[in-house]
Structures are given as structure tokens and as C-alpha cells.
Write a structure and sequence with these properties.
Layout (H helix, E strand, L loop, with lengths): L4 E7 L14 H16 L8 E5 L11 H7 L9 E4 L5 H15 L4 E9 L23 H6 L8 H11 L4 H20 L10 E4 L5 E6 L11 H5 L20 E9 L1 H7 L5 E10 L9 H12 L8 E4 L5 H10 L12 H4 L6 H16 L3 E8 L3 E9 L1
């Protein structure tokens, strides 16, 4: 079977809700990433055989196959098709898996996997709260309710609290982790570690104004963050431990990677950044929901024949602070190798774009640190997780 190689990886800097990217139509924002991947490789755009885009809230401006609309908003020719993927927060990580599987099979040679989410223009939960008559159409069906009696909704907030309690995590531990995430992201920004991966786009505000100013820095960063400030944030649930400060930030953004096989490498005439070494996806308990990266990582290590200490860098999405902390505890991984440039608590979590966003950061971090193997995983709505292991080349 052929190999799958990443030859380009890019992302926009994150934008706050109502902030510097709020005036961008999501198709146009994703189109900018598609253009950037073509520009960075210098390839003939017609060589791209498919575009797979992850997006969670596929409603409003992100409906009607956002992937195809992104292609039509880009410099790619009309002959390039597009399809949209929803595996909740892991949507664009799954897009990477689908793209890799396509080129490994030999069915295609050059595929773009990407993600986009405008959480300003298409608010979170919008697809599940569209108008319905007599409560018909609610996503938790009667059969699901019979299988999970007493569960009216699968809440990620409840799942985060359950994970924290199961792993014996304290609020002080969660607050401390959030503070470290900010400090690492601030340091990475000051040292220019994100510069190579970020695609500059002009600031475009919700009122339609276009300043012409480039957006090149993650807007969610709080450079004046203090541990005391994090500790003082109000609890989301009475009696719980999770606060907005220990949760991922709502974010607008887009990201993507170009994936090819050996035939694609020859056609493009470029050197790969990394090779996709292993891919796993796994379902888990949808009630606790956010624990899935733990068993998924264990399965990935077992199937790949690797040990946790053989992995040089980890990207575990910081949907909530208990997720990476529980993952560290269960896997025994070195915390100094985890999210070395900060994570979603500091930088934002643009839902469907986060999978290829984390992959972009991971691939560039491996290069800068001169390390070999990286592992990416993230919790996903419904109790699922993807795991991807890459090897820097």
C-alpha cells in the first residue's frame, strides 16, 4: 500500500467571537486556506483531486456542502470536487484520515483535508436548535433515550465534570493547567513560533468593514493573564469545577493540509513535511463523552506497535482542562511534551477547523524542535476520538 505524506500545512490565526474574522464568510475563509496550500506547494491547482472539509455547525452559511463552496471561492478549478465531514470536534482530523486513506489506496494522488468554523456567524448548537414542531426532530431519538434512560441530552459540560471527578482532578489543577496553556501560547507567539504556519488574512469585522490590516496573531490570547484571575472566574455549573477559563475559547478560523502519495510527490516535485504513520478512530461512552482520547490512544499505540515514550510531541485538544490532564494521567506521557505551544484554552477552538489546526501546529513544531514522532488526538461529541501519529521527514 502507498504511503500518505503531508506536503503543506497552514491555518489562519484564530479570531474571537465578533472579532477580527467575524466579517468573513466561512466559505471565503476556507478558500483562503485552499489557496495558501496551493501557493506553498507551487502546484498546478488542477492536480488537486478532492477537497475534504470538516465543519461541525453545517447550517446557515456553512450549509449546502461548505467544502464545495470553499472550492468555488478559491483559485481551484471547477473540476475539483468537495465534500463536508462532521465528526464533531474531530471533523477535520477525520478529513485528514479520509484524505490519507484515499491516497494510500491509490484511488487519488493529491487531496486537501481542511476545516472551517465561523462560530460568530454560525453559533455553536445552531443545527440542533433549529425551529421544530412539537419537539419533533430532536437529535436524541426515542431509541437512544431507551438505550440511555434518564439522559435527556449528551452534555459536554457534564462530561467534563465527570472526567474531572473520575480522575481525581481538583479545581486548582484545572486552573493551573489553563494558566500554563496561556503561558506557553504567549511564549510561542512572542518567539514567532506560529509565524510559518499562519496564513495572513485581512481583518474583516462583523459590520462588513475591511481594514486591510493583516490578521496574523491569535486573538484569544490574554497577555495579562494571571493565575488569580483564572481562579476567580465563575463556575459554569453550581457545585462543579469547570469555568470559562478552563474551557476552550469560542473561535473563528480555518486550516488545512495537503496530502499526497509517492506518485503525487513525483507529480508535484516537492519534499514532504511528514508521513502519516498511523490512524485510529474509536467510539466510547457518550455520557462521560470526553474520555474517548484515552482508550483511543491506547488502541493506537497497540496497533502501531509504539510506546508512549517513543512519541516526541503530543497535541491533545483542550476542549476542557480535564481532558488533557486525564489523558496525561492515563497514558503516563511526559507533560513537557504535551501542547508545547499552548492549546485551545489559550488559542481558541474553531470546532471543525481544530483537527487540521492542531495537525498544522504539530507538524511545524516537530520541524522546529527537530523531533521525529508526533501524536494528535481530540475528544468529540457523542463520545468519540481520532488519533493520528505522524513522522517528521
Amino acid at each position: 500500500m502507498a504511503e500518505a505524506y503531508i506536503v503543506a500545512a497552514a491555518r489562519t490565526a484564530g479570531g474571537r467571537r465578533g472579532g477580527r474574522l467575524s466579517g468573513w464568510h466561512p466559505a471565503d475563509l476556507a478558500g483562503k486556506i485552499l489557496d495558501a496550500l496551493v501557493d506553498r506547494t507551487g502546484i498546478d491547482p488542477a492536480l488537486v483531486e478532492d477537497v475534504i472539509i470538516g465543519c461541525v455547525s453545517q447550517a446557515g452559511e456553512q450549509s449546502t456542502n461548505i467544502a464545495r463552496n470553499a472550492v468555488l471561492a478559491s483559485k481551484l478549478p471547477e473540476s475539483v470536487p468537495g465534500t463536508s465531514v462532521d465528526r464533531q470536534c474531530g471533523s477535520s482530523q477525520q478529513a485528514v484520515h479520509f484524505a490519507a486513506q484515499a491516497v494510500m489506496s491509490g484511488a487519488m494522488d493529491v487531496v486537501i483535508a481542511a476545516g472551517v468554523e465561523s462560530m460568530t456567524r454560525v453559533p455553536m448548537f445552531m443545527p440542533s436548535t433549529l425551529p421544530r414542531k412539537n419537539d419533533l426532530g430532536y437529535y436524541v431519538s426515542p431509541a437512544i433515550q431507551r438505550r440511555y434512560p434518564g439522559v435527556q441530552d449528551f452534555s459536554q459540560f457534564t462530561g467534563a465534570e465527570m472526567v474531572a471527578k473520575k480522575y481525581g482532578l481538583s479545581k486548582d489543577m484545572l486552573d493551573g493547567y489553563a494558566y500554563v496553556s496561556h503561558q506557553r501560547a504567549i511564549t510561542a507567539t512572542h518567539e514567532g513560533l506560529f509565524k510559518e504556519e499562519i496564513v495572513p488574512v485581512e481583518v474583516r469585522l462583523a459590520d462588513g468593514s475591511d481594514s486591510g490590516e493583516p490578521h496574523t496573531m491569535d486573538e484569544g490570547l490574554r497577555f495579562d493573564v494571571t493565575l488569580d484571575g483564572i481562579r476567580g472566574v465563575k463556575l459554569i455549573q453550581e457545585g462543579g469545577m469547570i469555568t470559562a477559563a478552563t474551557s476552550s475559547q469560542i473561535c473563528d478560523g480555518a486550516s488545512g493540509v495537503m496530502i499526497v502519495n509517492e506518485k503525487g510527490l513525483k507529480a508535484l516535485g516537492i519534499q514532504p513535511l511528514a508521513r502519516i504513520h498511523h490512524m485510529t478512530v474509536m467510539g466510547h461512552d457518550p455520557v462521560i463523552m470526553l474520555e474517548a482520547p484515552v482508550p483511543a490512544t491506547m488502541r493506537a499505540l497497540q496497533k502501531s506497535g509504539m510506546k508512549i515514550d517513543e512519541i516526541d510531541l503530543f497535541e491533545v485538544n483542550e476542549a476542557f482542562a480535564p481532558v488533557p490532564l486525564a489523558w496525561l494521567q492515563a497514558t503516563g506521557a511526559d507533560p513537557e511534551r504535551l501542547n508545547v505551544n499552548g492549546g485551545a484554552i489559550a488559542l481558541g477552538h474553531p470546532l471543525g477547523a481544530s483537527g487540521t489546526k492542531l495537525m498544522t501546529t504539530l507538524v511545524h513544531a516537530l520541524k522546529k524542535c527537530n523531533k521525529r514522532y508526533g501524536l494528535q488526538t481530540m475528544c468529540e461529541g457523542g463520545g468519540m476520538a481520532n488519533v493520528t501519529i505522524v513522522e517528521r521527514l
